[in-house]
């Protein structure tokens, strides 16, 4: 039996063999010349019989190199991701740009990818997709075929195919089987050509529910108290891609009643909610967040959702809307829930107005969950923590990511949000008015769980790894 060694397959070699052939014969490409093809196969395979069959099928001399069965399974799941579509995976051809684009989007959707990156460099063009927050290289494209694909995307997104020097943004309504969804298109000129990012937007809100997002029972109770208030501002903070918009939509879904008039201004509209009046941001014609907010106040709203508070004008308009008796939901970029207060003040909002209008502030992050089929329990040592971090409780054992066919050998399957929720009561409002930003003791008295504490809870329960929560432990 051969020794197990680390084997990687380049994207260039991946194109040499079709997905169906690889999975059917349990083979992987190693090297190919004009007259010879070297392939990996499973140990115990009848190499003479298989090589003869492959030579007839592929019309080239075949040499097979046996490797352990477990390694073949790992490589096949890693490089030939299984999806539900009857499409080839790592060998789609770009000869027909329309079919390639449709198949690429279908594959990304089936793999629950959030973004598709189509990029060009000096000597290569490639396609990467983002799965569970991580980028995976999927295809290499020929440079001569790259412009045709970009033009196809531009045409479908109603963009100018002649403009190659300026960034462009558009939208594609994509129909797949029995449902449809929107795709946000962003094109930017780079040194060697145009780079395209396709953001797959999920129109289906069926599975969005506040109870399933990741709130602890205590945090959910605090959050719902703010949602139930008739006026004020509820802000969710976090970096791009942390799930803030999903939390907002779950909140809107809860508030969406016939007795309420709900308006939203978004960039982009990621989900569609029946009964909610949703407006798409169009800054090119002057329709920005602050202008939309000003107009919304004349629309007799009960609830207003602003996609993001980016500037002083939008912040002041949101404050004005809250002061006049409306419930305002929005997102903001800060590192913690209490950091939202400092951010609003830095934007020029007077502290007394922040104190009078902010009713709840929350921060969130997305943490990848360990695959339940393959996670491995091992002893834990404290040197795995960041320096100077004091654990909230002692951990004897923890789970490591291993990898199996169920998780494409990444070791992780799915993600869960962790939250930090601070309801602003009278005492905290007074601290804001007085400009006191150091209120950690008050938060501890109220039992407020930080992002680090909630992430650590997931780790100690064996749901995620120390590697996943490590960045959050610096903010303890």
Model description:
It is a single chain. By secondary structure, the protein is an alpha/beta fold. The protein has helices at residues 11-14, 19-25, 47-58, 69-79, 97-110, 146-156, 217-228, 244-255, 289-296, 312-323, 339-346, 351-357, 426-433, 440-445, 451-460, 466-469, and strands spanning 27-32, 36-42, 61-67, 113-120, 125-131, 134-141, 168-176, 179-190, 193-201, 232-237, 262-266, 277-280, 303-306, 327-332, 358-370, 376-379, 397-400, 412-423. The protein has a 7-stranded mixed beta sheet, sandwiched between helices. A hairpin with a 2-residue loop joins β7 (168-176) and β8 (179-190). The longest helix has 14 residues, at 97-110. The radius of gyration is 26 Å and the shape is globular. The two termini are 49 Å apart.
State mean pLDDT (0 to 100 scale): 87
Number of helices: 16
Q: Which spans of ≥5 residues are poorly predicted at pLDDT below 50? A: 83-92
> Radius of gyration, Cα only, in angstroms?
26 Å
Helix content: 25-40%
Topology:
Elements: H1 11-14, H2 19-25, E1 27-32, E2 36-42, H3 47-58, E3 61-67, H4 69-79, H5 97-110, E4 113-120, E5 125-131, E6 134-141, H6 146-156, E7 168-176, E8 179-190, E9 193-201, H7 217-228, E10 232-237, H8 244-255, E11 262-266, E12 277-280, H9 289-296, E13 303-306, H10 312-323, E14 327-332, H11 339-346, H12 351-357, E15 358-370, E16 376-379, E17 397-400, E18 412-423, H13 426-433, H14 440-445, H15 451-460, H16 466-469
Parallel strand pairs: 2-3, 10-14, 10-15, 11-12, 11-13, 13-14
Antiparallel strand pairs: 1-2, 4-5, 4-9, 5-6, 7-8, 8-9, 15-18, 16-17
